[in-house]
Fold this protein.
Amino acid sequence: MNHDFDVELLYAALDKKRSTEGLTWAGIAKEIGVAASTVKGIREKQGIEGDGVLQMLLWLDRSPESFVPGSKATKNHELEKPKDATLRFDVKKVYRHLDAKRTSEGLSWVQVAEQIGGFKPNMLQRLKDGGRTSFPGIARIARWLEVPMKDLTMVSPW
């Protein structure tokens, strides 16, 4: 069974709510706060920008784990929409968690990348500098760290 974040399921949920509310793709993109091409094009991309997906999930009132086959989404996984701010992935925090687990288990970055899957060691090490992350990669990392994806987020004023 594939335990990656299911992009098709996310797209279907967005489309269903779009249809139910009588919105166009541009309409839901405006409500979510992302470009219409970002929303409509998620099915065609290998990796979907993580912060954009967080906004989609907030609009759907769904947790990231609810789109991961085999995951048991609970209250612990629910995202909280910040007031007058934006929920984003804290990539430096992701790196700190990865490095702490790697160190405590005596693993090399090569071994961590192999265990997570879909990453090269240098990709994981670059998280130290911050930046952005994407789905399904962040879902793989959270699963390896054994933490809810919401624990890897931060509230940002922008």
